Each structure stands twice: as C-alpha cells, then as structure tokens.
Amino acid sequence: MASHLPRRVTGLVAATFTPLTEEGELNLSVIEPYINYLGKEQDVRNIFVNGTTGEGMSFSVEERKSLAAEWCLRAKGKMDYVIVHVGCLSLKDSMELAQHAGKVGADGIAVVSPSFFKPKTADALRLYLQKVASAAPTLPFYYYHIPTLTGVNLLASDVCKGIKKLIPSFSGVKFTGTDLMDFGLCVKYSQAEHLLLYGIDEQLLTSLVLGANGAVGSLYNYLGRHYNKLLVAFAEGDLDSARACQFNVQVFLAFASQYGFDVALNKQLMSDLSGLNLGPPRLPVIPCPSATVATIAEKCRQIFLQN
Ligand SMILES: CC(=O)N[C@@H]([C@@H](O)[C@H](O)[C@H](O)CO)[C@@H](O)CC(=O)C(=O)O
Questions:
Q1: Of all protein residues, whose CA lies closest to atom 9 belonging to ligand 1?
Q2: Which of 37, 81, 143, 174 is catalytic?
Q3: How confident is the model over 132-169, as pLDDT tens digits?
Q4: In angstroms, how far is CA 104 from the centroid of its own chain?
C-alpha cells in the first residue's frame, strides 16, 4: 500500500492575532495583507490560527469558521502550513470546527483541553482528543498543551503515551509550558515519530537543545526575522549568537512585562510595528493605553533594529 505521509511543519509558526473592527466585529479584510506581511517582512511561512493569541476561545463557532476559512483561503500559495485551533468547552463544537477545518483546507488542527469541566486523568483527556480527531481523521492532529491557561496540569508526556494507537492522525504537541523535564520526555518518547512545537518564545533556545522541531508563538508575528537568525545560529552550532538573540527577547519581554504584557498589549504592539490595523481585543480583554503601546514599540525598535 502506498504510504501517504502528511507534510511536516518545522521552523517558526506565527500564532496570529484576530483582526477586529473598532466595534469588535471580525475584520476579515486584514487577513490577506497580514499574510503578505508575515511572508515578506518576517520570512514566516506557517500560521496557527484561532489559538490563544488569536483569542479563539472568545469567538463563536460561526466566527471561528469564517476566520479559519479566510486564513486558509488567503494562505494558499503563500504559507507552507496552516494549523487551525479547534479547541472549545463543548466536544460537539470542537468536532464541528475540526470537520470544517478539513473542508476549508487546513493542513492540521490543534486542540486544547477543555478547561471548565477538566479531565482528571490523561486517559480522560486522550479519549476527548480522540473524539475530536475522529471528526477529521485525515488531518494531522496536534495536542495543545497550555496548563497555565487551561488549569489542566496533566503532564503532556503522560497524555502522549499510547496516543498514536488511539489517534492515527496524531502528529505532535504544541507545548506551551515551562516544565522542561516533561518537554524532554515528550521528545524522548516521540522517537522522532511526531513533532514537538514549543510555545514559550522567550525560552525557545532551551527547547531547541532538547529537540524541539519548531516553535509556535506570538512574537514570530513581528520578530520573525530576528528568530530566524536564532534558528540559523543554533543550526550552525553558533551558540553565542543564538544566546544573544534569545537574551534580546528576554530583555524586551522583561521591559514589556512591567506594563502588564498580555494579549491586548501584544496585539496593539503588532499593529504599531506592522502597520496593520488589527483593532482592539475582545472583551473581557481590555485594550492597553496607546501611550504604553508606543513606549514598548519604541523599546522593541531600539533593541531589534540595532541587532
Ligand atoms: C500564553 C501565550 O499567549 N503564549 C504564547 C506565546 O507566544 C507568548 O505570547 C510569548 O511566549 C510571550 O510570553 C503562545 O504560546 C500562544 C500560542 O501559540 C497561541 O496563540 O496559541
């Protein structure tokens, strides 16, 4: 039987922001220029949509479908890989979104654990993930581990145990956690069968040492070129340069954190730095004062335009 291996995503994956109008409605017209910006200005060719950065959980199923369809349509021929996040509190909603993602041409889907009624065991979470994956059985499936936001503190390495038998389309983990022992075990047990995409941008270098295959994050929206230098330096064994790149991000985030760096500030920063009008965040997230955004954007330019 001819084997049909799905394409693999590697390198940087921008976790996209969701463009909104000033009234808080979807602004789909920004998606095409956004994709052009990522490719041309940041040299980033993979996207992760409707995730944390994209405030996916704050949108209705219909809105998420419109977003997924538009991102996939506009990404055609311009992006190498589109992962659509389809996690919801309702299993049925997630299944509907998974099926829809397949229809509109996503390259993969990712799912967070439900976070109101939480799975108590890795078994329970695996069964949940299996159900969602079964709605789009041919689409590469990624488990999205983000314990600080879901409050689900199951080890990703436990969730991944035996998962391929349950979910034949299982392709990897998007690991947004600081437990590097858990991350290391995910890498070890995957035996290079599935991918480990790391999600804490300020610690990317550490994850590369442990074997990360790629990175999904918000900072790759506006610091893609900088992070590409880090990836190249690491691949060439130039650890001094790779560290210098990572330290610059840490200095920048330490500065931004004093002002309460969150998805609102991050989104507004992206608008300032890219010239795209991404609009406000959706409630309950509150916009950040524009003077604060300008201060942080200025710091960002100072650090990264000089290095
Ligand atoms: C909690 C959170 O938003 N984490 C971001 C990071 O990119 C984060 O913004 C960055 O590391 C700065 O702290 C990503 O992991 C989230 C992400 O990939 C997503 O949008 O789903």
A1: 218
A2: 174
A3: 999 999 999 999 999 999 999 999 999 999 999 999 99
A4: 19
Instruction: Establish whether 174 is a catalytic residue.
Output: yes
Residue 186 alpha carbon to ligand 1 centre in Å: 19
Per the CB < 8 A criterion, the answer to whether 142 and 109 are in contact is: yes
What CATH number should be reported for the domain whose range is 12-236? 3.20.20.70
The residue whose C-alpha atom lies closest to atom 10 belonging to ligand 1 is 201
**For ligand 1, which residues put their CB under 6 angstroms from it?**
15, 48, 51-54, 176, 199-202, 216-219
Tens digit of each residue's pLDDT (9 = 90 or more) over 237-258 = 999 999 999 999 999 999 999 9
What amino acid is encoded at 83 in this protein? I
- Regarding an ipTM greater than 0.90, the answer is yes
Report the residue count for the chain: 307
Interhelix angle 290-305/239-257, rounded to 10 degrees, is 170
